[in-house]
Amino acid sequence: MSASGYEEIRCQKIVVRHFGGIEVLEVAEARLSAPPPGHARLKVLAIGVGFTDLMARAGDYILQRTVPFTPGYELVGEVVDYRGDGSGPDPEWVTPGTRVAVTLPKMGAYSGYVVLPSWLLVPVPHGLDSHVAATIPLDYLTAVSVLARHARVAAGDTVLIQGAGGGVGQALSQLGRLQGLRMYGTASAAGSQERLAGNDVRFIDYRRQDFEEVIREREPGGIQAVFDHIGGANLGKGYRLLAAGGVLVSYAFAGRPGHTVADTVRGAAWLKLKGLLPGKRTALCMVPRELKSDHAWYRQSLRRLLDMADDGDIRAKVGAVFALSEAAAVHGALERGEIVGKVVLTTG
Ligand SMILES: NC(=O)c1ccc[n+]([C@@H]2O[C@H](COP(=O)([O-])OP(=O)(O)OC[C@H]3O[C@@H](n4cnc5c(N)ncnc54)[C@H](OP(=O)(O)O)[C@@H]3O)[C@@H](O)[C@H]2O)c1
Fold first, then answer.
1. Domain limits of the chain?
2. Which of 93, 122, 207, 233 has a 20 to 30 Å separation from 270 between CA atoms?
3. Which atom of ligand 1 approaches the CA of 141 most closely?
4. CB-CB contact of 306 with 128 (8 Å)
């Protein structure tokens, strides 16, 4: 027990000390002393794994952490204790034992315990499984940002979702379906056609078909929005598909692994220039920055998403569950395309 009355917590966490392949995901020991004022310590129950974690591990990510760092943008944890900031009673969502979901603005989720400011913690409904809840904080929040903050699409609008079978892609598809959008989606993984059809998304196999040709033929008047995470040539092709007043929302530039940072800088400049032209809009979504600058939007949106998952309105799905210590094997399997669906890490 420390002089402050907070017992030191020891746990495992994953640390990246050098950028590189899966071998740089090192299991290390962490020690958590007393939390700073206004912070809670959480026992981590489940961690969502996203493609961004792989990019950050390789040092190929625009919001790159410097080494050493711990990857992971999203988690569900249980409040262990909270140190008040002296401004009044503890908020109800930081009572010990409360389960909370979090999107971390600067990563750090791959850990047995974490220390976080109270504004980041959003209570998880009692009926919602922790593993399922851990799939929501980044992917679904990104989908809300793309749809509501940036695209501002309306029921009946026709949209193209690149990578509609991926984590963010499925979140976009499910929220788009609830919103009454007409959706096309690109994908290639086995079972994509059925998976996309389950979300009422018309499937385009991006490896065999040119999405621009397919949509131009089926939607000669153009479409209202394109959601892109590939960048490069996809941006121009998507932009050309837009009807007057349409919008291209870009939320990543992942088309050339190893070149993501340079491609992001180029892609962001291209979007800005195109955005100056009349008739169509362009937008760039970066949720880690958006949640830091708008706490109320973050808290309200994540709370609503968790409630929707609890009510069965969105069907957040866990593809596979592994132990935190298996993070390196998980990254390898994801890179080889051996796992389809969202992976959750648990701390046991
Ligand atoms: N802006 C933000 O705030 C934010 C937040 C979260 C994630 N992201 C970014 O969003 C991207 C997706 O993340 P995620 O976690 O959803 O990844 P994910 O689950 O791995 O999904 C990516 C999908 O991209 C598809 N894909 C690959 N190449 C493609 C191509 N040429 N054309 C169309 N689709 C293609 C894959 O489809 P198949 O497997 O069917 O081939 C895969 O399903 C990442 O780059 C990530 O960094 C950004």
1. 9-135+289-346, 139-285
2. 207
3. 5
4. yes
184: Cβ below 6 Å to ligand 1? no
Ligand 1 centroid to Cα of residue 32, in Å, is: 34
Q: Give dist(CA 10, CA 259) in Å, integer.
A: 37
Phi–psi pair at 70, nearest 5 degrees: -110, 125
The Å distance, Cα 229 to ligand 1 centre, comes to 6
Tell me what pLDDT residue 1 has: 52
> What span, in angstroms and rounded, lies between the C-alpha atoms of 36 and 116?
9
Angle among Cα 307, 152, 184 to the nearest 5 degrees reads: 85
Q: Report the atom number in ligand 1 closest to the C-alpha of 50.
A: 15
185 lines ligand 1 (CB under 6 A): no
- Give the closest residue (by CA) to ligand 1 atom 24: 163
Given a cut of 50, the residues of the chain with pLDDT beneath it are: none
160 lines ligand 1 (CB under 6 A): no
Q: Do 9-135+289-346 and 139-285 share a fold?
A: no
Rounded Cα gap, residues 128 and 305, in angstroms: 11
Residue 247 contacts residue 152 (beta carbons within 8 Å): yes
* Cα gap 149→146, rounded to integer Å: 6
In tens, the pLDDT along 94-140 reads 999 999 999 999 999 999 999 999 999 999 999 999 999 999 999 99
> What's the 14 CA to ligand 1 centre distance in angstroms?
23
What DSSP assignment string belongs to 153-172? --TT-EEEETTTTSHHHHHH
Fold of 139-285: Rossmann fold (3.40.50)
Report the residue among 49, 52, 53, 344 best suited for mutation to probe ligand 1: largest number of ligand atoms under 8 A from its CB. Answer: 52
Is the domain 9-135+289-346 a CATH 3.90.180.10 member?
A: yes
